[in-house]
Design a protein that fits this description.
This protein is an alpha/beta fold and 168 residues long. It has five helices and seven strands. The chain has a single domain (3-164), classed as Glutaredoxin (3-Layer(aba) Sandwich), CATH 3.40.30.10.
């Protein structure tokens, strides 16, 4: 392999990393994990400082939405997500505020009237453990704690309703 070929390969790898990083920062759809069918776990501290454990929702369908206050696509879908949550009291909802300051997450929750628990993920560790590659990302989990559907990128109330059918 000559020097020019190595330069081309290196440039391609750098470009791929830049594009992936940009997509992951907000709203990108560079991929995402396939629906795993595995039991999901989530523990942490909410924006209000309380301890949170997803296991407490066992027996109910759960919608987990990863978002950030600074993300335009997250702000776009937030009114529909909040309305969807209000329309489905039989479903447990949890938000995960990714790579954000607590104050930013709290402002987002107030702005959109989000009434469900929101876990703070300031360094993106929870999002990373879920394989989140872009925000917003929403997971739909059945009554047994098994992931059954996934949406990467902003959704609408109709889109949320369609995915909920897969776990109800």
């Amino acid at each position: 392999m000559n020097g020019r070929s190595l330069s081309t390969i290196a440039a391609t790898v750098v470009a791929a990393v830049i594009v992936t990083s940009a997509l992951a920062s907000c709203g990108g759809q560079s991929g995402g994990s396939a629906v795993s069918g595995a039991r999901v776990r989530l523990t942490g501290t909410t924006l209000s400082g309380a301890s949170f454990d997803l296991a407490s929702y066992r027996g109910r369908p759960v919608v987990i939405n990863f978002f950030a206050q600074w993300c335009p696509a997250c702000n776009e879908e937030a009114p529909d997500l909040a309305a969807f949550a209000r329309a489905h009291p039989e479903v447990a909802f949890v938000g995960v505020d990714v790579n954000d300051k607590v104050a930013g997450g709290r402002a987002f929750v107030r702005k959109y009237g989000i009434s469900f628990a929101v876990v703070s993920d300031p360094k993106g560790a929870i999002a990373s453990s879920y394989g989140v590659v872009g925000i917003p990302t929403t997971f739909f989990v059945d009554r047994n704690g098994v992931e059954r559907a996934l949406t990467v990128g902003a959704s609408t109330r109709e889109g949320f309703e369609e995915k909920l059918k897969k776990v109800s």
